[in-house]
């Protein structure tokens, strides 16, 4: 099963947790860490994350979460067949999980991620990883078309 992924940058995490928890029928977050929260819902089938590390409030990126390597390869092949810019990441640590990913960017400049998570992390992300995702850093797909 594929699951839609949406990551929204927020200014106030606690207010946003209250809002989205109510929207999702008072479901408890799947992951709740400093500056980060995620719900993995089955109805609707969505991995919805919020954090305080985006460049500005609003949609940070959208993605498709897959369950198998074959599904990830299929999604990546779609990008390549469409001649879209792609940045692949293997065994990357982000959002308290280890995942294989591919990033692209749509015509509006919205970053899209496809990923398969292999392991969830209970502890906080290492300082090295956290520095890579500090506030005001664009997602990898945004760097495909406009490198810094």
From TrEMBL:
Domain VOC: 2-117
Entry's Gene Ontology BP terms: response to cadmium ion
Keyword set, alphabetical order: Dioxygenase, Oxidoreductase
GO MF annotation terms: dioxygenase activity
Xref: InterPro entries: ArsI/CadI-like (IPR049789), Cadmium-induced_rsp (IPR052393), Glyas_Bleomycin-R_OHBP_Dase (IPR029068), Glyas_Fos-R_dOase_dom (IPR004360), VOC_core (IPR037523)
Pfam families: Glyoxalase (PF00903)
Keyword Ribonucleoprotein applies: no
Region of interest (Disordered), residue spans: 126-148
NCBIfam families: ArsI_CadI_VOC
Protein name: Glyoxalase/bleomycin resistance protein/dioxygenase
């Amino acid at each position: 099963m594929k699951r839609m992924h949406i990551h929204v940058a927020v200014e106030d995490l606690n207010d946003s947790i209250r809002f989205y928890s109510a929207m999702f029928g008072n479901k408890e977050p799947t992951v709740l860490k400093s500056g980060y929260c995620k719900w993995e819902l089955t109805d609707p089938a969505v991995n919805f994350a919020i954090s305080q590390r985006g460049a500005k409030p609003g949609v940070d990126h959208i993605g498709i979460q897959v369950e198998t390597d074959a599904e990830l390869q299929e999604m990546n092949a779609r990008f390549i067949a469409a001649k879209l810019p792609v940045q692949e990441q293997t065994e990357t640590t982000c959002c308290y999980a280890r995942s294989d990913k591919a990033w692209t960017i749509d015509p509006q400049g919205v970053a899209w991620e496809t990923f398969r998570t292999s392991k969830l992390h209970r502890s906080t992300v290492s300082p090295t990883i956290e520095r890579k995702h500090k506030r005001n850093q664009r997602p990898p797909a945004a760097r495909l078309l406009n490198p810094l």
